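Notebook entry, structure prediction.
Reason for the run: the old model in the group folder had no record of what sequence produced it. Starting over properly, with the input documented here first.
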Amino acid sequence: MSLNGKVALVTGGAQGIGRAVVHLLLKNSAKVSVVDMNQTLGDEYKAQLDSEFGEGNCNFIQCDVSNGDMLREAFQSTVDRFGRLNILINNAGINNEKNWEKTIQVNLTSLIKGTYLALEHMSKEHGKEGGIIINVSSMAAFIHSPHQPVYTATKHGVLGFTRAMADASALGDYGVRINALCPAFVDTPLLHSVEHEDNMGKFVKFKDEFKRSMSTYGVLKPELIAEGMMRLITDTSLHGAVMKITCSKGIHFHTYGPQSA
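New structure, fully documented this time:
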């Protein structure tokens, strides 16, 4: 699948994994809406991208993805600007056990809303041309941690929702491929938030165990996650796929047996 002229929307696109995948999408001639909460980082990154790839290929939209109206407007602005939407990267995420309701809103609720909004602009059931949705989960969906129970729950939720929606898309002939990406520890601002009581609340007392896990499993670079993301986007055989990325095994896929009660 060629990305030339395709239009992508990336949440959490001004930093971390999102920042790396935005760069790779533009490098492959896609047009991109960078959606992020951080106005300063977003403006700075857009200026950098305009300088590298030329003006008119990306735009920045400041958005709190947990605000449904703002999120809907981000999608509409993208379509108004570029004429269509082909790719959604549901990447925005936080790790806040103290304000765990917000963690659910950002990591899971907004991802579900984003998926449904993308389908409005992509699905053949709405007369659109199809597309691809990548939902960012985590290896926390497979390996739980006492340091981040609600974060872990949201990432389990992302995985279940993605697999069920992939089946719905196939059965409903939406023309939209839906995949999940599960990286291990990644060198991002989110990873560095785990040491702070303001983020972790009472679970901050487990931070040393968390750090030992990081030392054991290693820390990935965002660029490798973006590389995996591009494979999920461009390989048209991948639908309902669950990609894992770890230091020990690199990019690989989780396999499931047949469902049974």
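Summary: The chain has a mean pLDDT of 93.
The old model has been moved to the deprecated folder.
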